[in-house]
Amino acid sequence: MSPRGARAERARRTPRTIWLVTGAVVLGATGVTAVAVSAGAEDDGRPAGTRPAQAHALALDGEDPKKRELGRTETQLFSLVGVSWEDSLDDFEGTAQIRTRAADGGAWSEWRDLEFDVRAPETGEGGASGVRGASEPLWVGASDAVEARVVAGGEETAVPDALRLDMIDPGVAGRDATQSVAPGRGVVQPQRTTTRKPAPTPTPSTTPTTAAPGTPTASPTGGAGSSPSPSATLEPTPTPTPTPTPTPTSPPESGDPTPPGPSAEPTTAEPGDPSPSVEPSSPPPSPSEDPAGPTTSTEPTPPPTVSPEPSPPGTSAEPSSDPEPGTSPSATATTPSVPPIVSRAGWGADESLVADPPSYLNKVDAVFVHHTAGTNTYDCAESPAIIRAILTYHVKTNGWNDVGYNFFVDKCGTVFEGRAGGVDKPVQGAHTYGFNGYSSGISVLGDFENGGTPSAAAKQAVADVAAWKLGLHGVDPEAKVTLTAAGDTGVWKKGDQATLNTVSGHRDGFATLCPGATLYSALPEIRRAAGASVYAH
Fold it and tell me: Which residues have a Cβ under 8 Å from the Cβ of 397 and sit 6 or more positions away?
C-alpha cells in the first residue's frame, strides 16, 4: 500500500547514462505492443545452455483516465511481473491485479494483487533520469500469457502516465543449482584478521571443537509449496565454557599444506550437488580473552557526502583485508567469522546490468527487515532465479543502479548477497526510504502479510546475518538507535529524530505493510536470537 501524505522535497534530478535499449514487438494478432528491453549483445561469452535475464513491457493504454485493462495476451516467457509508470514522484492510488498462464500446462492463476509500497531512494540514485515509479514485483513462476486490470482510487485520482506492465524472465545461469551449496563452495567465507592491538596468544584446546549451539542447518524443500523442515531453532541454548582457539589465519599460499576442513580452493556449485548447509565452513571463534570488546553505539553516523574508493561490481565475494570504511579504531581486534552467504556469482547476477560503482556508508547503525511480497510456494532451488529477476526488475523497471536489498534470505535459511560492493562493507542500498543512509536491508523471499509464516530457518538466518553485520560496527542487535529521517516517509517527517530498534521492520521507518504481519510479529524473537547468535560480537 502506498503511503498517504505529502511528498518529500527532492533534489533536482541529476543526469545518468541511459543504456537500456528498446524495440517494439507485436504479439500475435492481439494488436498489443510489447517493449523488449535488452541489456546488450546476445553473444556475450556466456556458457552454453545459459541465457541472460530479459525484461519485456506491455503498454497499458486506454481512454478511461481511471482504468486500464489488458485482455488475455500471449507474451514471451516471464516469471516475475509488476506495473510501472513514468514519474517516480507520482504515487499510485488504486489497485492493480494480474493473472497469468503457466507455461507448463496452460492453467490460469487466480487474480493476484500487486503492492504499491516502493519509493525511489532519497539518495542521488533515486533522482537519476530514467527512474520510474513501480509496484512491488510479483513472482509467478514460468508463464507465457497475462491478463491485467488497473483501477485508480478516489474521485480525483487517475492512473499515472505511461503506465505499463513489466515482465521479467530471469534467464538461466550456470549456477541455478547454487542452492545446493556445500560449506566452502560458492559461498562467501572470508578468513581474515584485522589486528589493531596486540592480543594474548591463546593455548590451543585439546578438545575437538564443534559448532556452537544455535548454528542453523536447513534442507531445501522437496517441491514447490512444501514447507521447509529446518533444524534451526531460535531458542537460545546455554553457551559452553569458551575455549581459547588460535586466531584464524589467511588461506595458505600455493604449495602450502591444505588445512583440515573444507577445501581452500574456491569451487562453484554445479547442478546435482547435495542439499544446502547453512553451517559455517569452520567453527566460529571462541570469545576473545581480551576484555576490550566493541562498544555498542547508539549515536547514528550521518550519511557520507563522498563515497570511499569503491570495489568494482562483482568483486564483493572476495572481501578486502583492509579496514572497512567508517570502522572505528576502537572496534574489535579480530573480525569474526561470517555466516555462509551465497555470493552474487553464486546466484548468477548479471554484473553488466550495474552501470555505476557502489556507494558506501560511514557506518551501519541499523538493519531493516523486509519481505519480497511475492509467493510462498516457491521451491528453494528457485531462489537464485527469483533474486536474478528482482535484480533485473530493480534495474530495468525501477531504473535503479542495482538490486535494492543488501541481503536476501529464503525459507530454507540460505543467505544471499544482494547489492554489490562487499558483504563485509557498509554498502548503501535502496530499501528503506528516508533511512538508506544509515542502514542495511535484509529481505526474506515470500509474502508474510497474506497468510505466509516465516520458517524457523529463515528467522535464524535473519538473526545471524543481522548480528554479524551490526557487530562489524559495534552495534548491539537488541539495542535502540536514534536516526534522522532524510525524507517524509508517511511515518516520519523529514528531519524527525526517529528512535528505532537496531533490528527494525520496514514499516517502522516507512508507511508500508512490509515485512508483513507475521514476519513483523517475529522481530522481537529475531532480536533475541541475534543477541544470542554465534555471530554476535
Answer: 55, 82, 84, 132, 134, 137, 166, 168
